[in-house]
Design goal:
heterotrimer; A mainly alpha (254); B alpha/beta (322); C mainly alpha (261); A: 254 residues; mainly alpha; B: 322 residues; alpha/beta; 2 domains; 11 helices; 13 strands; 34% helix
């Protein structure tokens, strides 16, 4: 199972690295979003704030790649007829679809590099990491947590025809609710609890605290807590939705 | 006057070998093709995949410019007089694509009727008529994505006939169809020939060309390797008779005896089901059944068939030589 | 006469046939929910940075929503001919290409406008932004003008799509670029001079400026110049797109590119 998982992640990364679309999108969008943040926040003229904004943008892109890329990838599989093959394979769906999500999140690290480079080159934002050890752990923890959250979404996408549309629609709401570019204090109080169960919240905190100082390890711990919860939920969801999809014959409809 | 005249048509495709390397790859799809089609004829262009059939049709339907050579369709040059020509020809191709899946059959026809400038007064009437002709009446309001391949093909034909062109180009129309669907389609094409249309049909099915076409050109490797009526092609290339004998084990010495017989051109064997079939090709006129059976004396024999060479034999031989 | 028929009827039919987002399962997430969430995101970002007002970001992102609809709409309505391989059929027909392709701009502009209106109404309600009746007329005109410009840019994108390039990629990158370059989310004065000059030839810039001026109290007459410029830019893009389509067809006949997907 681990072998299937690792191979899957590697394959997904390879596919993404060869896709002109994905490389261009991951090159352009972080720059656009980060630049908007930098120009708006410029009024405060605080390099650490800008650096946090850069990290926030990177996590935004990780989520976007997972949820949009995943939805689109599943739709493509459906069109090419390979989704049926994945379902029919002896390995459980979590081991075949999970890597797609996590690979997408890992691709988001490329977005992080682009954002930091852009910030450094054009806005002179210093890249200083407070705790390199924590950062080195925080980054993969963030990727995995976001990927597994995407897996839950993907398990519902298996059922519906226009998965890519749902993926697109779920970008901004998560960016808003997880406090990636602005604090949650700006939002109504009921948003708080929702943010606690979402991976990007903890992933971002972990990375930001490792870079700028704070309790990185507890945030990393929360990443793993939610990751385990997501895995459990997606196992249940995948089994249930797969059965439904087989009953409704919705694997082939393109 | 010939409706279509093609003289020494050539077409070279150039493509880059890869995105990064600077090499250019040249493929000579047509190497000097010449033929002509008379009014009211159903002319067949027969050849294997990659022979140049589709390239030829695309040049004649104004979709592709030739590299060199001359073509005239209805007296017009498809390369330079394409605007006038397009209203007078119909183009039908096989396969799954070429229709708007999300629209109904009727919507597709209405759209193409406008695109082909069918006068508004005639539009509905023609569409109704064509739906009956191709047998899609009752299914026209369903989305094309629900159509079977046979139905799509019929819709293609209806589309190609909307503007009542005098000359029709059919590019492998029966490809991918089941035998029943293919037979119905061939009947439709034959009907169009009866109605006086001039048709160029490309196919890689020999029996189709044999059944439908008045004249056939065999194209292989970008060149016409033979032209004429199907009967002439059969006679010209594979002269003679073929005797097939079903046996249950024949040794090499007996085959040598057969080869030594007067009039025998070649002897080969083929395994079909449980039996071994000996195929003897002989010159025309040779009456070989008795000598062959005598030479096989002592061998258990099943069926004996003496037949004419088919267009398939001729085609295979022609294409093999090319 | 036939040309008029092709322009309107075929324009709508092609749009229906090739634009894949009309079904509600796609339309609602991408063209309703997404723009509203985008408006909220940037409004909150603006509040956090203490820059401009909610109305600033509402107007900017409503125009961006129209842009997305128009660019993807036109891009798919033209690039889709390659996907369904109806391109050879159309190229072999006598139809006037310019009329046929430009006719698709009409339903595209209508779609862009419609999407923007929904986003505006919902966004304004959530953020508590109020718009008077006189202002509405000017806003409608500004939106129509910008939708037209984006349809023109969409035609350029679609023509590249005919050539086998990815329509989705161009539409995606350009709609992202417009978020910042048009001044939708960053006041133009804050951007580098080079970018500001570039902004003047890009869709949305003048439409957004007109709309913001109106929201701040300007009359329709005051912004007529800006609207005219926006439409003019759209006409230029439309022309470029039609030229590209013509050039492509000529090239396609020469190289045999119509069938390569």
């Amino acid at each position: 199972m681990i072998r299937v998982f690792v191979t899957g992640v590697r394959l997904q990364l390879l596919q993404l690295m060869r896709s002109g679309f994905d490389i261009s999108a991951m090159l352009v969008w972080p720059i656009i979003l980060a630049s908007i943040a930098f120009y708006l926040l410029d009024a405060k003229e605080s390099p650490r704030l800008l650096f946090a904004a850069a990290l926030g943008t990177a996590v935004m892109m990780m989520w976007a790649q997972v949820i949009v890329g995943a939805g689109g990838s599943l739709d493509n599989q459906r069109i090419f007829g390979t989704l049926e093959l994945l379902v029919a394979a002896p390995v459980p769906l979590v081991a075949t679809i999970g890597p797609i999500m996590i690979g997408a999140g890992a691709f988001g690290v490329y977005g992080l590099v682009v954002t930091l480079l852009w910030g450094r080159l054009l806005f002179g934002i210093p890249i200083t990491i407070d705790n390199w050890a924590a950062f080195a752990v925080a980054l993969p923890s963030c990727v995995i947590a976001i990927g597994l959250l995407g897996l839950i979404a993907a398990s519902t996408f298996v059922l519906y025809r226009s998965a890519f549309a749902l993926g697109i629609a779920m970008q901004y709401p998560v960016w808003i609710v997880c406090g990636l570019l602005f604090p949650l204090s700006l939002l109504p109080s009921w948003v708080g609890p929702i943010s606690w169960v979402l991976a990007p919240t903890w992933g971002f905190r972990a990375i930001r605290e490792a870079a700028l100082g704070g309790s990185a390890w507890s945030s990393i711990g929360m990443c793993w807590v939610v990751s385990i919860a997501y895995l459990a939920i997606s196992l249940v969801c995948l089994t249930y939705f797969e059965r439904l999809a087989r009953a409704r014959a919705s694997f082939r409809l393109a | 006057m010939a409706v279509v005249e093609v003289e020494d048509l050539r077409r070279v495709y150039r493509s880059r070998t890869s995105t990064f390397k600077r090499g250019l790859k040249e493929v000579e799809a047509l190497r000097g093709v010449s033929f002509s089609i008379e009014q009211g004829e159903l002319f067949g262009l027969l050849g294997p995949n990659g022979a140049g059939k589709t390239t030829t049709i695309k040049i004649l339907t104004t979709l592709l410019l030739p590299t060199s050579g001359r073509a005239r369709v209805l007296g017009l040059d498809p390369a330079t007089q394409h605007r006038e020509l397009r209203s007078r020809i119909g183009y039908v191709f096989g396969g799954d694509r070429g229709l708007y899946d999300r629209l109904s059959g009727l919507d597709n026809l209405k759209f193409f009727a406008d695109v082909y400038r069918v006068p508004i007064r005639e539009k509905s009437h023609r569409i109704e008529e064509l739906l009956d002709t191709v047998g899609l009446r009752g299914r026209e309001r369903e989305r094309v994505e629900t159509y079977s391949r046979g139905m799509r093909q019929r819709l293609h034909i209806a589309r190609g006939l909307l503007h009542d062109p005098e000359l029709l180009f059919f590019d492998e129309p029966t490809i991918g169809l089941d035998p029943v669907g293919a037979r119905e389609l061939r009947q439709t094409v034959a009907g169009l020939r009866e109605a006086g249309k001039t048709i160029l049909l490309t196919t890689h099915y020999m029996f189709e060309a044999d059944e439908l076409c008045g004249r056939v050109a065999v194209i292989a490797g970008g060149r016409i390797v033979a032209q004429g009526k199907p009967s002439e092609l059969k006679a010209a290339v594979s002269e003679g008779t073929v005797v097939e004998i079903e046996t249950y084990g024949v040794d090499e010495s007996r085959l040598d005896r057969l080869r030594a017989l007067d009039g025998v051109k070649s002897v080969s064997t083929e395994t079909r089901d449980q039996a071994q079939v000996v195929i003897v090709q002989a010159t025309a006129g040779a009456s070989l059944v008795q000598p062959v059976l005598a030479a096989l004396d002592g061998v258990t024999i099943g069926k004996v068939v003496s037949r004419e060479p088919t267009l398939e034999d001729a085609y295979v031989e022609l294409v093999r030589e090319a | 006469m036939n040309d008029l028929r092709v322009f309107f009827t075929c324009g709508v039919t092609s749009f229906r046939a090739l634009f894949g987002w009309v079904n509600p399962y796609v339309f609602v997430p991408i063209l309703v929910a997404y723009p509203i969430a985008q408006i909220l995101f940037f409004s909150y970002l603006g509040r956090s940075a203490g820059v401009e007002s909610d109305a600033f970001f509402l107007i900017g992102n409503v125009f961006c929503a129209a842009a997305v609809a128009s660019m993807f709409g036109m891009g798919q309505a033209i690039g889709g001919e390659r996907r369904f391989q109806t391109l050879p059929v159309l190229m072999a027909s006598p139809v006037n290409r310019l009329v046929m392709y430009s006719g698709r701009a009409v339903p595209t502009v209508v779609l862009g406008f419609f999407v923007a209106v929904i986003a505006f109404v919902c966004g304004a309600a959530i953020l508590g932004v109020h718009v008077g009746q006189t202002e509405s007329v000017a806003l409608v005109l500004a939106l129509l003008a910008s939708s037209f410009t984006c349809a023109g840019l969409g035609l350029c994108i679609g023509s590249l799509g005919l050539r086998g390039r990815s329509v989705g990629l161009f539409a995606d990158v350009l709609s992202g670029g417009l978020l910042i370059i048009s001044g939708a989310n960053v006041p133009l004065e804050k951007l580098p001079d080079a970018v500001q000059s570039f902004a003047s030839i890009v869709p949305l810039t003048h439409g957004i400026e007109a709309a913001r001026n109106v929201a701040a109290g300007a009359s329709l007459g005051d912004v007529a110049g800006l609207l005219g410029t926006e439409v003019g830019i759209g006409a230029v893009y439309l022309t470029i797109g039609l030229v590209l389509v013509t050039v492509f067809e000529r090239e396609g006949r020469r190289t045999g590119a119509f069938d390569r997907f």
